[in-house]
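From the methods appendix. Each design record in this collection lists the tokenized structure first, followed by the designed amino acid sequence. Records were kept in a plain field format so they could be parsed without special tools. The example shown here is representative of the layout used throughout.

RECORD:
FOLD TOKENS (83 positions):
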């Protein structure tokens, strides 16, 4: 298992090609990432490796990830925005 990305690398990986994704991901790294379990942090890194169109569809509710762990993380991030 590889070492988790450090915050500066996560911040950089959250810079996407879509403003909507930037608005969701960047604040989450600052405000919610530290509260994740080790497994969820690994899942977050996998989430950041996904293509922007897939991420957009998942976050906007147009589709769901077939990977249950990634979908749970999407749901966590979306819930933080709605609160």
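DESIGN:
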């Amino acid at each position: 298992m590889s070492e988790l990305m450090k915050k500066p690398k996560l911040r950089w990986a959250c810079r996407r090609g879509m403003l909507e994704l930037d608005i969701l991901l960047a604040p989450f790294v600052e405000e919610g990432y530290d509260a994740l379990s080790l497994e969820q942090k690994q899942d977050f890194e996998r989430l950041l490796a996904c293509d922007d169109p897939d991420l957009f569809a998942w976050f906007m509710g147009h589709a769901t990830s077939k990977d249950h762990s990634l979908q749970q993380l999407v749901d966590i991030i979306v819930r933080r925005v709605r609160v």
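APPENDIX NOTE: DSSP finds five helices and no strands in the chain.
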